[in-house]
Amino acid sequence: MTTLDRTAVPRRGNADRVKKGLVSGKFTALLILLPPALILFSLFVILPLADAVYYSGFSWNGYGAPSDFVGSQNYQRLLDHSVFHTALWNTAKLILVSLLIQMPLALGLALLVYRKTPTNTLFRLVFFLPYILAEVAAGLIWSFVFDGDYGITSSLLHAMGQESVYVLADHQWAFPAIMTVIVWKYFGFHMMIYIAALQGVPKDLVEAAKLEGAKPRQVALFVQIPLIKHAIVVSGFFAIIGSLQIFDIIIPMTNGGPSNSTHTIVTYLYSFGLSRLNIGFGSAAAVVLFVLAIGIAFFYQRTTGKGSKA
Amino acid sequence: MKSITTRNTLRVIILIVVASVVIGPLLAAFFGGFKGNSELRTNPLWLPDSWDAGNYIGILLDGNFWRYLGNSFFISLMTVFLTLVVGAAAAYVFSQIHFFGAKMILSYLLLGLMFPFAAAILPLFIKVRDLGLLDTYWAVILPQTAFGLSLAILLFKAFFDQLPKELFEAAYVDGCSYLRFFWSFTLPLSTPILATVGVFVFVQSWNNFLLPLVVLNDRSIYTWPLGMMQFQGEYLTQWNMILAFVTLTIIPAVIFFLAAQKYIVAGLTGGSVKG
């Protein structure tokens, strides 16, 4: 056994050996420490994604080996399916709402509460709270809020002398309701990213601007926001990748309805692929999702010029 | 010109309005759990007429509720354990050991940062089924761990890289092996980052819905989000019961959040935390 002995005089040349990486047990260490990660990652991340590409060429219900090769037919069916168009458009709407409503809201609130005071800390905790709740729990609570018989929206409408609306069963209102919940659920996450960045902005820059007579709005627009650009870029990346994968909140709220009007890409591939055991067809939808995610990630890195490592 | 007090009043009003919208539905759910269903219909938002905890107690006395929580807890704990051990081991290799191909293998393991989990869900179902793991804890634990590895390795490596180099050199000169050093020095020195990643992995696993939905069919092994959807399916429009159930699942989440907020906030702001 090797034990650490502080009094031992190191043998000459050992320091060199360390620098060259010739320490004892290097290969044992490699053989023990690296394979678990490699095996798990390959087996449950890379292989399934490769499988998705393979399965998408077959008409297959998941049993036996896939044998009924249909070429690009699954993709053709996707492109022809109006529900898939709706799912794509809904996903695009989620991205737009996240970027154009949620992020500005989060930034505005971050500017209001970023200073370290006890009341600000309290507000921050409150705003961040929805983020840590499970999506399904949030979805159920909001299904109640929007319920036509019991819900809060209905009772507000009654108070104003209006008829109750079954928001989540209504073509026009169901998806806006879902988008509202998503903003409610995630704005606190983006706000926290901005707060951390704002606290890193040197105080004297802000003070100097104020001494020059800049109003708070001008300080925010011309000093603080440009200085936290990196945080905004990172949060935008999370907003897009997160929006592409929205699933949990939709299931308890509408389950894709009414008449398939609130599907996203992921609820679509679940409902039309997995639930009906159309593994090939669902895999084609998964490949589309995968390509979109990678494509957007590259495009985003290109246009924002920054790495999106978080 | 607006005076400072007007501006501050406006600011406080905005904050209170937003906070009410954020908290309102949660409080309504909490209050709703104390109400009868007919009371809920006429008064969905405000305090209950009487604080009758019958709905809550009924759920707490039902063994299923605890079973769901227990399943989720075990799965989350194992996912955290595996992610930390496997992720830290790999990150240590890339941080400390120079070998041919290290860069390529690291890039490979970091690919997961860009992959949407949902895109792999159908083949994952097939894979888990073919491995005979459907309706076992491992059906959830192993894929969760695999998909969490990329971010864990990235954060661990960044942290290990910052540990003092002299320490490593001194230890190796004294004849310490890589394995021993990993175990006796790297891991104990890295508790802040282990805690941060651990807290995040735990929350993600605890809240996960899609994967358990796909790979668990047996009710006895349901995680709590599945159990909650099952409960909702049984009670449909008995919103008072559903709200009581949801509230009971939110309470542990809030307590955990308040206890671990230091690590959660640190994780959002770059993954480094001072001990």
TrEMBL record, chain A:
Highest lineage ranks of the organism?
Bacteria, Pseudomonadati, Pseudomonadota, Gammaproteobacteria, Oceanospirillales
Q: Which family does it belong to?
A: Belongs to the binding-protein-dependent transport system permease family.
What's one GO BP annotation on this UniProt entry? transmembrane transport
Q: Which SUPFAM superfamilies match?
A: MetI-like
Spell out the subcellular localization from the entry.
Cell membrane
Output the CDD domains linked to this UniProt entry.
TM_PBP2
Q: What is this protein called?
A: Binding-protein-dependent transport systems inner membrane component
**Residue span(s) of domain ABC transmembrane type-1:** 88-300
Keyword ATP-binding, does the record have it? Answer: no
- InterPro entries xrefs: MetI-like (IPR000515), MetI-like_sf (IPR035906), UgpAE/MalFG_permease (IPR050809)
| TM region(s), chain numbering | 27-50, 94-114, 126-146, 173-198, 219-247, 279-300
Q: Which domain of life is it from?
A: Bacteria
Q: Which UniProt keywords apply?
A: Cell membrane, Membrane, Transmembrane, Transmembrane helix, Transport
Bilayer topology term = Multi-pass membrane protein
UniProtKB/TrEMBL annotation, chain B:
Q: Which UniProt keywords apply?
A: Cell membrane, Membrane, Transmembrane, Transmembrane helix, Transport
Q: Which InterPro entries match?
A: MetI-like (IPR000515), MetI-like_sf (IPR035906)
- Membrane topology according to the record: Multi-pass membrane protein
- Any one Gene Ontology biological process term? transmembrane transport
| Ranges for domain ABC transmembrane type-1 | 69-260
Gene3D superfamilies of this UniProt entry? MetI-like (1.10.3720.10)
Q: Where are the transmembrane segments?
A: 12-34, 73-94, 106-126, 138-160, 181-203, 239-260
Protein name as catalogued: Binding-protein-dependent transport systems inner membrane component
Which organism does this record belong to?
Answer: Vreelandella titanicae BH1
